[in-house]
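Why predict the complex rather than its parts? Because the way molecules touch one another can change local conformation, and only a joint prediction can capture that. The input here totals 765 residues.
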Amino acid sequence: MRTMTYRDALREGIREEMLRDERVFIMGEDIAGYGGTYAVTKGLFEEFGEKRVRDTPLAEEVITGTAIGAALGGLRPILELMTINFSLLASDLIINSAAKFRYMFGGQPQVPLVIRMPGGGGAQRGAQHSQMLESLYAHIPGLKVVAPATPYDVKGMIKAAVRDPNPVIFIEHELLYNIKGEVPDEGVEYTVPLERGDIKREGSDITIITFSRMLHVVLQAAEELAKSGIEAEVIDLRSIRPIDIDLITDSVKKTNRVVIAEEGWKYYGTGQGLAALIYEHAFDYMDAPIQHVNSADVPMPYSKVLERAALPAKDDVINAVKAIVPEALVRR
Amino acid sequence: MKTVEMPKMGDTMEEGKILRWLKKEGDTVKKGESLAEVETDKVNIEIEAFSSGVLRKILVPEGESAPIGAEIALIGSADEPLPASAGAADAVVPARAASATTTAANRASSTSAPARSAVATQPAPPASTNGQGRIFISPIARRLAEAHQLDYAQIRGTGPNGRIIKMDIEAALAQQITAPAAPAPVPMPTAPASAAPATMESEEVIEIPLTSMRRTIAKRLSQSMQMAPHFYVTSVIDTGKLALLRQQINEYAANEPEPIKVSFNDLIIKAVARALVRMPQVNVSFAEDRIIQKKQVNVGMAVALETGLIVPVIKHADQRSVLDIAREARRLAEAARTGKLKPDDLSGGTFTVSNLGMFDVESFTAVINPPESAILAVGSITPTPVVEGGQVVVRDRMKVTLSSDHRALDGAIAARFLQEVKHQLEEPFGLLL
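Output of the joint prediction:
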């Protein structure tokens, strides 16, 4: 095992797939010579050349359409959109073309497209450039939506996403690129399945479900809760669509209490959607209503102080847990 | 004016009877001074004043009972006017509805005690209704209650809006079976006389009303038999070496600065404790969805009182020397006899030993003391003819029977445990190491 950054692990995954399958190529704004806005594709242009590492114009709708076309034509494009915020410009292509072509044309065409983009905020990017938006795409049949949170997962999942014949919305996070984690040694081939969640910490008192950058906030909260005698089971969703409801249900049957912690907004988001699913599958095991931890229901402030106030933090997770774990349990 | 409320002073305490007021109306009371002697289902306790002042009004007279939380007296300054309701005859009637709503109002209610099982409630108070007669209960709690045929209408919930939550049901189930269990061993003279309810006598029968202790025993043991599928494993133990060791220990201990006599039961408790350390899978409790393995080895010893059965617990029996166990057992038995056992002496047990040997009982089966998973019933030591090397010789033998909860323990585990206990007793030198 090696310790690597999320960014390096991601790049390694992309590179391995490009080496494995010559149909795989990458395209996006400033990904070639510049190495990508977040340096994810750094060095790939030098290695693979301009045919397989393509800079594009600053035109999300057009480049997404191009990527879809390439996929329809038998290639395996990995499209980088600079952030998920800009994907809104290409939303018609993603939702109405990529997601639907295989269905609408009787399964004949495949759209084996991976659209990579960072989501979320916390770097003072302002209201228009700090959104998570994963639930928008998770609503659409025909798409897979994933959000890996660790270097191990991001490398395994980018490889799995490239091999998947479906269009995959691959959501990273600006503040995840530098985090470090354990990744198998070079040459060890592995993938991480796209539809499975992962228990990142076992516990028996409460299930905290989360994904992307919030995983790390939740794990910190769990450590602190353990000092009060509350053992939290932390589930990293990894896949937003489809969601690993069986993994979640098993956990809920054990703990009877759920907190869903995410960076996105509360209303009509992933958390509320998942909560409804949990009530559907595990109602008889609930000891308390599901608690939600979200960003404040406002456009993300630019001001550093206000942004920090708007984003959910460790204490918000802890308070949500304590709201439904009975006091008597806490005093153990 | 401060109210004095009946405090909860034990896991299973639902109500207390005022045996004796130690202060009269008009007496000055200092914070910390004892106010009254109260009888609970297990022990007699003195309750102390939490505020200083003058005892203005006694609301519950001697001989009467009040449930936990009920107002029993008022302490204030000498010239403060008494509240209008203070003199009312029904002040004794527990403020149940009031306390139910207050609990509903704040989740972390004052009835939350440190022990998990103590948090919830007394079956008596009415349900956590919201005024419209609805009971709030979480789905898992209801499921659990129904699985155990528990009528949750009587349970006070500690969740928001008085919602009954899983913990409340678990506590109610544990409470129904937390009183002492098992047949009476080690006989002790009468417990302190407590005002027994009036006996009724007719031509054919004498009707003896139940004391709270008897009621608790009845409830708990029934629950234990109903919920835990009991199975029994018997072993015969050769006590020759054990008797010799005991003799040697007592010769030694007679010369200790505080002389003590070690009984066979003390040695058996030590043997059991050692066996539990080696086989922690017997030191468990069965919960609905998991087995809870206890890290401490706390061995209860069943003690017979005139009024009933009580099981004080020798904590950390595995870590105590044989002499220490003997001293602790003496202390607990004496305290039980004089009604001075503290709630702490009665809680936390992980296994129980019940000994009827002194009654010339060859063997018997005991009822498991919940939430434990097993109990050892010890019979008398009897000279027995046995065959050894083709000859008939006489050996001292003792039958012990292990009752086990099949939900938590299987036959092989129980048998192996018993084997371990037998080994500890037949090669008893290990008890000293």
